[in-house]
Amino acid sequence: MTIGYKIRKLRENKNYTQQYMAYQLGITQRAYGMIESDDIKPTNDKLYKIAELMEVDLFQLVNLDLDRVSFKENGQYNNVVSNSGDNFNINSQDTFDQLLKAKDEIIKLKDDKIAMLEEKIKKGMAR
Description:
127 residues
């Protein structure tokens, strides 16, 4: 499940329009639509603002886990869990940025490993 899909589902659940979300994020409706369709990746500050507008936990938004979402009520997170497991609530932009950076580093390491394996396959086929 993609982050754009999850953002769209959360927006629809709140009965917000794309136009409203775009206005709140300071972007065009077209740009916002591109986020929901995964044509562009939202910046960290946009993700933080989306989570705030949707009143959900940042970590869960980034993890794309619709089975575990914490909705915010009266300034407190209300954890809704349909599967067993731990919930994580992150209220700090710095903590969120650190988690996002770590995720990006893991993805880069995996991409590098894939590239190395593809190169080995090419060399093996050239023999």
